[in-house]
Design brief:
Length: 501
C-alpha cells in the first residue's frame, strides 16, 4: 500500500471514529426521546382512563334521562299532571274555577299543552346500540329517508322512519332530514343532520349553532362541504355522503360514517363492502371532508384513484384502517405492486406519482426485489441497516431493512399482506400506528433514494394529529440527515475493506 493510499485510509478511519462518536450521542438523544415518549404514553393512558370515566358518567346520565322520560310517559304521571298544572296556575293567581266560569276551555287546553300534559316538551334519547331513528317529513321528496332505511337495515341496524319525535326515543343515533322543518329535535349527542343545499350566510345563527352542536352533519357534495365551512361547520363534524343515486357509493359512505361514530367496526364495514373492487396501481388517500386539500390533490395527478380515507377515533386508527382496506382489496384483485400516497405529499424531484411507480418497478426488475419502495421516510430508525447503495437513472438508491412513513410508498404483495394483517383492535399508539407496525418488521427489503423523491407539505394540517406538518420538520430533517450519514458510513467501511484487502 503506497503512502497516499495509507494516508487516505487513515483519514477514513479517523472520520469513521468521529461518525461512531456522533452515532453514540445520537443514540443517547434517541434514548432520552424514547423516555419522553414513554412519559407521554403514560399521560395519554391517564387521559384515556379519564375519557372512559367521562363516558361512563355520560351513560349514567343517559340512563337517568331515560328513566325520567319513562316516568313522564307513565299513566300515573299523566293522571297527576292536572294537579301540578293547577298548583302552578294557583301560584300565578289563576284557578280553573275562574276559567271554567267563563267557558274558557281553549285557554285551559293551551295551558295544559304548555305545561306538558299533552306531550313531553323535552325529547330525551336513551342509548340502545343498533337502534336508528330517521326523522323525515311525509312531503320530503329527496328519497333520502328510504335510502337511509334500506342501507342501515342492510348493515344490520334497526332503522325506523318517523315524521316527528316520539315521546320516548331509545335510538343510538337519530338522522334528521332537513332539520329546519322540525320544531323538536333529538339531543345533540345523538343527532345526525342531513342538511340540504343552501346559500352561505342564509342560515339563522341559532340554526347554525344547532348544526355545530350536532354529532354529525352530512353533505352531499364538495360544494356543500365548502358552504358549511363558510358557516364554521367543518371537519371532523362534517361527513360526505353522496346522493342515494349510486347505491354502492352511498352504502360505502354510510358505513364509513357509522364506523367513524363508533356504531360499527372495520370488519363489519369491510363485509358490507364486499362488492367494492380496487384494481388500480395508483391510489391517492384523502378525506373528502377536507375540501381544500382534496381539491389540491386533483392538481397533482389525474391518473390515480382517490380513495376516501376511513375515519375513526383516534385518527391514527382510521388512517391505518384505510391502508388495511386498500391492502385487502388489492390482494383480492391480484395486484402485484401498488403506489399509495397521501394528499399532503409534495412531489419535489420532478417526478409525478406515475413516474415514481415506473422508477420503482424498474429498480425491482433490474436491481432489487424490494418489499417497499419508499419515496419519503419520515423517521428513520437509528438501528436501520444499509445492505446496498447503487445508482439507478442517475439517482442514489439505498437498500434498508426498516422504514417509517406512509406519505408515498410502492408496496409489493408481501408488504400488502402485512398491512392486511394489521390489528385494528390494538390501541397502543406507541407501537401500533401503521408505520410503526411496519417498522417492527426488520426483515423487510426497503429501497429509498437520497434525497427523497417526495416531501411533506408544510402548510397543511395533519388530519391524524391535528397539528401543522411544519411542526414535524425537525424529525423529517433528522431522518434525512441520518440516512445521509448511514450511506456515508456504509461507503466508507466498504472502501476501507477494499483498501485493506
Amino acid at each position: 500500500m503506497d503512502k497516499q493510499t495509507s494516508d487516505l485510509t487513515s483519514l477514513l478511519e479517523d472520520a469513521l471514529t468521529v461518525r461512531q462518536n456522533l452515532s453514540f450521542y445520537r443514540t443517547r438523544v434517541r434514548e432520552l426521546s424514547r423516555h419522553c415518549d414513554q412519559q407521554e404514553a403514560s399521560h395519554n393512558k391517564r387521559i384515556n382512563d379519564l375519557q372512559a370515566e367521562i363516558q361512563s358518567l355520560h351513560q349514567q346520565a343517559e340512563a337517568s334521562r331515560h328513566a325520567l322520560a319513562s316516568l313522564k310517559a307513565s299513566s300515573s304521571w299523566q293522571l297527576t299532571a292536572p294537579l301540578r298544572v293547577i298548583a302552578r296556575l294557583a301560584h300565578k293567581g289563576l284557578t280553573f274555577a275562574k276559567l271554567l266560569a267563563t267557558d274558557r276551555f281553549a285557554d285551559i287546553r293551551t295551558l295544559l299543552k304548555k305545561a306538558g300534559v299533552t306531550r313531553p316538551s323535552v325529547k330525551d334519547c336513551a342509548y340502545t346500540p343498533g337502534a336508528i331513528l330517521i326523522l323525515s317529513r311525509p312531503d320530503d321528496t329527496s328519497g333520502m329517508a328510504r335510502a337511509l332505511s334500506a342501507a342501515l337495515t342492510a348493515a344490520g341496524f334497526k332503522a325506523e322512519t318517523v315524521s316527528s319525535m316520539p315521546d320516548i326515543c331509545t335510538a343510538q343515533f337519530c338522522f334528521v332530514i332537513n332539520p329546519q322543518k322540525f320544531e323538536e329535535l333529538p339531543p345533540a349527542t345523538h343527532r345526525i343532520c342531513v342538511q340540504p343545499a343552501f346559500t352561505p350566510g342564509s342560515l339563522p345563527e341559532n340554526y347554525v349553532a344547532m348544526l355545530k352542536d350536532s354529532r354529525a352533519v352530512l353533505a352531499e357534495s364538495q360544494q356543500e362541504i365548502e358552504a358549511l365551512a363558510q358557516q364554521g361547520i367543518t371537519y371532523p363534524s362534517v361527513f360526505y355522503v353522496p346522493e342515494p343515486g349510486s347505491e354502492g357509493d352511498f352504502h360505502f359512505f354510510l358505513c364509513r360514517l357509522m364506523m367513524a361514530l363508533g356504531a360499527t367496526d372495520f370488519s363489519a364495514l369491510y363485509d358490507q363492502c364486499a362488492q367494492h373492487e380496487i384494481k388500480t396501481q395508483l391510489i391517492a388517500l384523502s378525506l373528502p371532508e377536507t375540501f381544500e386539500r382534496h381539491e389540491l390533490l386533483k392538481s397533482k395527478t389525474s391518473a390515480a384513484l382517490v380513495f376516501p380515507g376511513l375515519r375513526a377515533t383516534p385518527g391514527w386508527v382510521g388512517a391505518a384502517c384505510s391502508f388495511k382496506y386498500l391492502a385487502k382489496k388489492l390482494l383480492e384483485a391480484g395486484v402485484e405492486q401498488a403506489l399509495i400516497f397521501e394528499d399532503d405529499a409534495e412531489f419535489t424531484e420532478g417526478m409525478n406519482p406515475e413516474d415514481i411507480l415506473s422508477f420503482a418497478l424498474k429498480i425491482r426488475q433490474e436491481h432489487c426485489r424490494w418489499d417497499v419502495f419508499s419515496a419519503f421516510i419520515s423517521d428513520l430508525h437509528p438501528d436501520a441497516t444499509i445492505s446496498s447503495v447503487f445508482k439507478a437513472d442517475g439517482r442514489q438508491c439505498v437498500l434498508l431493512n426498516r422504514m417509517v412513513g406512509m406519505v408515498c410508498n410502492v408496496y409489493s404483495r408481501n408488504a400488502l399482506t402485512l398491512i392486511a394483517e394489521w390489528d385494528e383492535t390494538n390501541p397502543d399508539v406507541g407501537h401500533n400506528t401503521i408505520d410503526r407496525y411496519l417498522e417492527a418488521h426488520d426483515d423487510l427489503k426497503i429501497v429509498t433514494t437520497c434525497p427523497f423523491l417526495v416531501g411533506h407539505n408544510e402548510e397543511m394540517t395533519s388530519s391524524l394529529w391535528h397539528v401543522k406538518n411544519s411542526t414535524m420538520n425537525h424529525a423529517f430533517t433528522t431522518s434525512s440527515n441520518l440516512l445521509f450519514e448511514k450511506i456515508w458510513q456504509f461507503r466508507t467501511e466498504k472502501a476501507l475493506k477494499q483498501g485493506n484487502g
